[in-house]
Design a protein that fits this description.
The structure is a single chain. By secondary structure, this protein is α+β, with helices and mostly antiparallel strands. The protein is built from 17 helices and 12 strands. Among the domains are: 31 residues; 314 residues, no CATH class. It is 41% helix and 10% strand. It has an 8-stranded mixed sheet with strand order 4-3-2-1-12-11-10-9, with helices on both faces. Strand 10 and strand 11 form a beta hairpin. It is flat.
Length: 566
């Protein structure tokens, strides 16, 4: 219909030319016929206009139809888009029409301000960013004071960025942003704590959060109050238990059941601060910028327990460690024990970088627990350090004995001191003296390490074989996956990035619970009898009834005899 209307309008407005095919027809048309045709054309035009109006109204009603989702209509939305385009007049409007449409929708759904102010709770990322922003702040001191403070912290805070550069060549490490944040966090820790040495130990992954670990040593005479307080609490607890036992023995009645003669094995004491397993102090946090948490000293019982269980970390220091055998402590203690095991087994250094003091050279090798830096060490070449024999790498952390200490403690000696009376000394039996535990001494070459599943415990090599003159030596542990070290000239460093679990070839099998203890000792005086059968029980009841009847008859006879006598 629209095509016909436009065709008619074209024909109506087009001028006629003489000699055309229509000229003869027009000549033959009379005035009456022309009037009739004009009326018909006018009527047809009105009909077409009405049809177009109906089509327009139908189209508009369709565009005004509201959406069932947003309760908006397309007509108003298109009008707003056109107004926005005419107001802003962007370049390449046809390419920006989709963005303008989204912007119009976004502005329409923005909430209007009301009397009650809307406060959005900040997300965890926003809170962490606010904490980390403090790491990048520079104090308002003068430049000279700031430079002096930096020089004071320089011997304490290591150059983590340089270490990350070398570890990156070895194919291990964190991204540069995280590494720089860790450096700022270590700098913050050095300002808060009176530390003499500080280094980035590594990162242990967890199921909910990861642990960033720093290793340090306090200055002489500082940082020992907290650890000593924990030891005092343990001692007071043991004293209370002993006093409670003595009180029960004194105030006990003769009717009380017998007490067990079982005596638990003596508790192996932990090593003192700055010695053995507690030589270093460790701090942890889950993200750079968060407060550092100081880990407590490790005990031999905790190290022994970690060797019997296998459990992922959660990232919560206060989480309980559900395992068998039971672990004596929370995840904080579990983390500290694993750190000590990893350090003792994987912290290595180039040969002759450390040396024993002259006074200690005369002592036995087993008694050495300290060393000094060899100032005359000139460094080893990368090819020598990459030798598969591993003779040019040594352990510089003390070995942890099966007892859970670096120095063996005789538990029988303490038990002997508990007996003070001479009579008790004569009566008691002399316990068997346990054989002292021994381990490899300090600065033992890696070539003496035991193999792992028939293979070397270490994998060593160069960072690249293309430019060996600029390559560094890199080594990684196969016993503790995630432990790495590098060395070049006089520089070396160790780092651990992993799950904190030891390599295991087969599937993990937890320890089997022990046998149930017997209720009482079996012997001639005490023996367990079998339960009677139903027939035996019935015969016993019948015999008891007959005995009662006989007793009743005897009583009746005695009463009759007494009456006759009267």
């Amino acid at each position: 219909m629209r095509a016909m209307t436009s065709r008619f309008q074209e024909e109506k407005g087009r001028p006629f030319q003489s000699g055309s095919a229509c000229e003869g027809v027009l000549v033959a048309i009379t005035p009456a016929t022309l009037s009739q045709r004009q009326q018909s054309a006018s009527k047809s035009s009105r009909n077409m206009a009405a049809t177009e109006e109906v089509s327009y109204q139908n189209a508009k009603s369709f565009l005004l139809k509201s959406s069932t989702i947003s309760n908006e209509n397309l007509y108003d939305h298109l009008a707003q888009i056109i107004n926005r385009v005419l107001d802003e007049r962007p370049d390449n409007a046809v390419d920006a029409i989709e963005d303008i449409s989204r912007s119009v929708k976004r502005d329409k759904y923005s909430s209007e301000p009301d009397a009650i102010q809307d406060v959005d709770a900040p997300s965890e990322q926003v809170e962490l960013a606010e904490k980390q922003s403090k790491l990048f702040e520079v104090s308002g001191e003068s430049e000279e004071q700031a430079e002096g403070a930096e020089e004071e912290l320089t011997p304490v805070v290591p150059n983590v960025m340089e270490q990350a550069f070398y570890f990156e060549q070895a194919g291990v490490g964190l991204n540069k942003e995280d590494t720089f944040r860790i450096y700022l966090a270590l700098k913050q820790l050095a300002q808060e704590q009176p530390l003499e040495t500080l280094r980035f130990w590594g990162k242990i992954f967890g199921t909910q959060a990861d642990y960033i670990i720093a290793e340090g040593e306090f200055r002489e005479g500082e940082g020992e109050e907290e650890e000593n307080g924990e030891g005092d609490e343990e001692e007071t607890g043991e004293q209370k238990n002993e006093e409670g036992d003595e009180g029960e023995e004194e105030g006990g009645d003769s009717d009380e059941p017998p007490k067990s003669n079982y005596k638990p094995p003596p508790v192996i004491p932990k090593e003192e601060n700055r010695m053995g397993t507690n030589k270093k102090t460790y701090f942890v946090c889950t993200e750079p910028g968060q407060p550092w948490t100081r880990l407590p000293p490790v005990t031999p019982a905790q190290i022994q327990a970690t060797r019997q269980i296998r459990k992922f970390f959660t990232g919560n220091l206060e989480a309980s460690v559900v395992s068998y055998p039971p672990f004596p402590g929370t995840e904080m203690n579990y983390l500290r024990a694993q750190i000590q095991r990893i350090s003792a087994a994987t912290h290595v250094s180039p040969l002759n970088y450390y040396q024993f003091e002259e006074e200690e050279e005369e002592e036995e090798e087993e008694g050495r627990d300290s060393f000094i830096v060899n100032t005359e060490f000139e460094g080893l070449s990368a090819r020598d350090l990459a030798d598969p024999s591993l003779a040019n790498w040594v352990h510089h952390v003390q070995y942890v004995l099966p007892q859970g200490r670096c120095t063996w403690h005789n538990p029988v000696q303490k038990a002997e001191e508990d007996f003070e009376d001479e009579e008790e000394e004569e009566e008691r039996e002399e316990p068997d003296q346990p054989e002292p535990e021994k381990g490899p001494p300090l600065l033992t070459p890696l070539s003496e390490d035991t193999q792992v599943d028939g293979q070397s415990a270490w994998t060593v090599g160069l960072s690249t074989n293309l430019g060996t003159q600029y390559a560094i030596a890199a080594i990684q542990s196969n016993r503790w996956p995630g432990s790495h070290a590098f060395a070049i000239d006089r520089k070396f460093e160790n780092v651990y990035i992993g799950w904190g679990l030891k390599y295991q070839s087969g599937g993990f099998q937890p320890a089997i619970p022990g046998k149930c203890q017997s209720e009482y000792p079996m012997g001639e005086d005490i023996a367990e009898d079998n339960d009677p059968t139903p027939e035996e029980e019935a015969a016993l009841r019948a015999a008891q009834e007959e005995a009662e009847q006989e007793e009743d008859k005897e009583e009746e006879n005695e009463e009759e005899e007494d009456e006759d006598d009267d």
